[in-house]
Amino acid sequence: xxxxTQSPAWQALREHASQLGTTAIADLFAQQPDRADxxxxxxxxxxxxYAKQRxxxxxxxxxxxxxxxxxxxxxxxxxxxxxxxxxxxxxxxLHMALRNVSGRPMTVDGxxxxxxxxxxxxxxxxxxxxxxxxxxxxxxxARIADIVxxxxxxxxxxxxxxxEALQEFADGPRTHFVSNVDGAQIAAVLxxxxxxxxxxxxxxxxxxxxxxxxxxxxxRAWLVxxxxxxxxxxxxxxxxxxxxxxEKFGIPPANVFGFxxxxxGRYSLWSAVGLCIVVALGPARFRELLGGAHAMDEHFxxxxxxxxxxxxxxxxxxxxxxxxxxxxxxxxxxxxFMEHFIAWLQQLELESNGKGVDRDxxxxxxxxxxxxxxxxxxxxxxxxxxxxxxxxxAHAVDFxxxxxxxxxxxxxxxxxxxxxLAQSAAMMSGARAEPHRxxxxxxxxxxxxxxxxxxxxxxALLALYEHRTFVQSVVWNINPFDQWGVELGKRIAQSVLAAxxxxxxxxxxxxxxxxxxKVRGMRLGSA
Length: 527
Ligand code: F6P
What we know:
The chain is of the alpha/beta class.
């Protein structure tokens, strides 16, 4: 047994879970008359209702004791203090400095990071303003109408998701996102664009990611074919922690925006990686987004844990996974423009906490990141909610709902709200009827209300999930800031690529070697 599962706080929760037995969530309301009010918390305008979790006041006490036992207070201080919390890479994870609108010093490696952070942000904003206002033009003098972000993972998901979620506020050039090395994606995007009015942003922390570099080369060739080599400097910008490589690609230093190794890819949208967001929405709205995230940072580091949204959500997710045996974490934003939020959150949580060893390198004997998936409501109701209501396993759901719409169709929004609240109620109460109609109920959910899907509240929401992920990692004693698991596949792909191109297949396992032969044969029409 691991140190964690043997620990007193873990054992106490286990014992408590077995005492709770099959107690129905609905019955907890009878035992605790003020539950609907009491099991709520507010911060930065966001309202969390966790009354429909299968948890009692005692559960919360025990979860808070677990957080104390795991040193959450010390870890929060280490995170905000710029300590090397990413131990395998000996790096800090100080993404909070990127949105530190207070200007208060934040230190990493013994230096205040804020002057550099502010300087890059000012450069990004000036560049974005030049594009938005037409001061920066294409080679032939045309205004830039389309910006294409070429990046993958954290260099794509964050800016793509924010641009989609806040499209109602967009008043700059159109933004497009190309991430996949499947050429179908970039071909489809380029088919809609004109070289003379297009600017590409190559976004890559390392500037070596194979998919991004392949797309960057294709975009460059497409541009050069129409406008010539000299146009690259006017039509390409780069965002990277590897400024030297970006310059080697032919992008002049003035169009290269740096960030730092203490910004993890999945935490990078707040940095220059957010360039497309600034171009689309303008600097003022980008700063509102940062402001919302900063407000959540302040809440996380200072609010008592009993009222602390990231702490509560992190601990409840641990409870659901490790003690109640929930099969997965579902996220259902009732906001069409939050479709990409799920992919962003998948990278955040699964790349962060999908680990099988703890910080001491010992195998874990407890679940870490549960499978996380979802879709926007109400679409999701007509796809997989059947399983949530009647499947044999319980899944925990986060319902996210902006209470005011960004459009004038009030009646439709009322229907949307009704469905969101109804689904959460149905998951809890279920329904008794003949077997095929029975819904067991007793399935936990959170409801998270936002006043509106606007830059400030979206910023707060994203920071909330970032910190929730951190809280989970502290309980599980794992490093959430590395992602070594993605390296293996990348390495094997190099050997497969060489074999596909006629090189030796010796390094490949027999199954992969056969598949390479099969693919080559099928291409030649001989298989
Ligand atoms: O998927 C692995 C990963 O390293 C992510 O963590 C990162 O967001 C993505 O690749 C892209 O990396 P880069 O920004 O260096 O191109």
